[in-house]
Amino acid sequence: MHQSDTQAPSPHQNIRTPRDVLDAVERRFGRITIDLAAENREASVCDLFIDEAQDSLSDATVWPTAGVLWLNPPFKKIDPWASKCHQWV
Question: Which of 14, 30, 49, 61 could hold 44 in an S-S bridge, CB 3.0 to 4.6 Å?
Fold first, then answer.
């Protein structure tokens, strides 16, 4: 059981993806090259990231079409993220 499975749900949306999940993703798809929804540099899962100030949801912010992209958005407001994903595809 993962430690987060035993904790009460957090009212915050800034929960980092567990390292073991990221390791599994990278084993399957390769090294993650950009984090599309990093809160800041410290919270990013890799060196390249789009943070809140850069606004990943903005039409002016173009997501890359190559590499391994990572997206762990705030799920309480998932609709705009789902729309951006749909546009990107």
Answer: 49
Q: 63-77 burial, b for 16+ CB within 10 Å, e for fewer?
A: eeeeeebbbbbeeee
On whether residue 1 sits in a domain, the answer given is: no
- pLDDT tens, position by position, 51-72: 999 999 999 999 999 999 999 9
Low-confidence ranges of the chain (pLDDT < 50): 1-6
Q: 79 lies in a domain? A: yes
Other C-beta atoms lying within 10 Å of the C-beta of residue 38? 23
**Does the pTM exceed 0.85?**
no
Token reading at 81 = 């993220």
CB 34 within 8 A of CB 70: yes
Which pLDDT score, from 0 to 100, does residue 4 have?
46
Q: Give the strand order in the sheet containing 69-70.
A: 49-51, 34-38, 69-70
Decide if 61 is inside a domain.
yes
